[in-house]
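To: structure subgroup
Subject: Chain for Friday's discussion

All,

I'm putting the inputs and outputs inline so they're searchable in the archive.
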Amino acid sequence: MKAIIIVFAFFGILSCQYEKNTALHTIEIDADKTHELYLSSLFDKQGLIKLETADSSLIDGNYQLIKTRDYLLFYNWQKVILFNCSGDYLRQIGKIGHGPAEYQLINAVTIDTISETIYLSTYSAILRFDYNGKLIKSLPIQRNNVNVDIIYLNFQNESLWALYRETGIRLSDGKFLNYTRLFKYNSDLQIIDSTQIIKNVILSNNLVDKINHSADFSFLKTDTFFYYPIICHEKFLRDTLYKFEKSKLIPILRLDFSKRLALENKLLLNLEATNIEISKIYRTSKYVFANYFYNNNHYYLCHDLENKITYNMINGFIDDLYGTGRVVLRPVDLKNGIFYFFKEGYEIEGKIDNISESSNPVVFLIKFK
């Protein structure tokens, strides 16, 4: 098994081992220049789904969605709920507790649509359920006195991709070592491959304010892209999207904030005087999307790769398809350019029939033209 190593040295020189790529696409961003972008300029309607409202089915906009042909799976850090695509509540998958089919914390969820099974990464194990909520298999997480979290799951090409983060490994000189590794399992949770993504050494073990950031894999029809955001108090900005190609991790695109980071004609590579944080970079065949935080505002970026046009938006797109106001898009199926957004009942009461303040959120689906 080949290991891909990207080593980030803190408080010193940034050292990387990767395949050089002269075709690095750079997107220049002026965080102070913003745009308004309407959904209809890029997308068409794909329909909306009103979720059944019952005590056991209540969700909010903090839930993530996985959509298959027949089902909608919603999850947050402590609950997984299954609906059908008509919006009818079906069941909860697992529950809070300490039993075999129970969990204390959910980090990531994915679905194998072929075998109709659901995988959960929890604090203690990877759990495999069928659609009826029956536990099929559990793979315990081996910690060995090290902090270990599985921060990402995705089932692709008959393999389960699981991103492990190991943090706070104390070294003899008092520093701390962190690893991020990618494991691939077969459907029965047996390891078939592994890749080291990041190895870094830091002076402090303070990761508290950064651990909510996960990773982004963009699985397209022929290509796979990867972005990993800030994981601790780093002296540089993680601004690069990578591509998996022939067992190598290749830098393919970066977000250039140098105009904003310029101070006294010097680039602030140590970021001591900026508050930009990138939380997501992902792409489709034609567009790059990114989320970042700057000056107490959430920004959403959309870059047209073909026409080299960048839209920099505060708080998201303007929905002129369904008329629900400003929206934040989340991907459903990047291969086919399908996205969704939530609107909670109180946001669209009076705009959508039979929706009240106490209703479950409505899911709105859109697709690239």
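Points worth raising on Friday:
The mean pLDDT is 84.
The radius of gyration is 21 Å.

D.
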